[in-house]
Structures are given as structure tokens and as C-alpha cells.
Write a structure and sequence with these properties.
Strand content: over 45%
Number of strands: 11
Largest sheet: 7 strands, mixed
Radius of gyration: 14 Å
Distance between the termini: 40 Å
Structural class: mainly beta
């Protein structure tokens, strides 16, 4: 059973940067996608970015294209999300995601708070 553990969130001023990490365990192979979502208070969970683990090919939501960068380190079994030029509206809990056996798998989330 795959497990995902996020880290790297915190409090940052507007214009600042953070790098989130998602450590993956319990999965072998490369033929699957992993991605990042976020959920702000009172809002639905929002897709941010995804990549194919084998090829590393990224895909971004228009809302974060040019500010956020998704990447992975296959040796460390870790996915990253670099957040640049953060805005107060980026405040949310950030989750990493994958699918296994047709089911969604989520990490516990990491809080990002951007002050103005």
C-alpha cells in the first residue's frame, strides 16, 4: 500500500517561496502519475500540478503556471513542489496525491500560510 507524507509548509510573507516535499513509500515501478492539490478554508480541493513518475513530464493548472514547479527525485522517492512569488490567496493545505488500484491516495497535508 502506497503512503504519502508531505512536509515543508509554513508561514511566509507575500512574495516569498517555499518548497514542499512528498515522500512516497510502499510502491514500486514508474508507470503512474503523482500530483499536488490544495484546499483553502471553505473551498473545494483544487488541482495544481501533476507529473508522470517515469518520465517526469509535468502538467500545471493555469492558476499556478509560471509560479509553481513540480519535480521528483526518483532515488529519494520524493516529489517536490516549489512555490514562488507566493500570494495571500495561496494560503491552503497542500496535499500530494496518486492513484493505486483505482483508488485515490492522499497524504495528510501540509499547511501553507502567506501573510500580506
Amino acid at each position: 500500500q502506497v503512503q504519502l507524507v508531505e512536509s515543508g509548509g509554513g508561514l511566509v510573507q507575500a512574495g516569498g517561496s517555499l518548497r514542499l516535499s512528498c515522500a512516497r513509500s510502499g510502491r514500486t515501478g514508474t508507470n503512474y502519475d503523482m500530483g499536488w492539490f490544495r484546499q483553502a478554508p471553505g473551498k473545494e480541493r483544487e488541482f495544481l500540478a501533476t507529473l508522470s513518475w517515469g518520465l517526469g513530464t509535468p502538467y500545471y493548472a493555469d492558476s499556478v503556471k509560471g509560479r509553481f514547479t513540480i519535480s521528483r527525485d526518483s532515488v529519494k522517492n520524493t516529489m517536490y513542489l516549489q512555490l514562488n512569488n507566493l500570494k495571500p490567496e495561496d494560503t491552503a493545505v497542500y496535499y500530494c496525491h496518486t492513484r493505486q488500484g483505482g483508488a485515490d491516495v492522499w497524504g495528510q497535508g501540509t499547511q501553507v500560510t502567506v501573510s500580506s
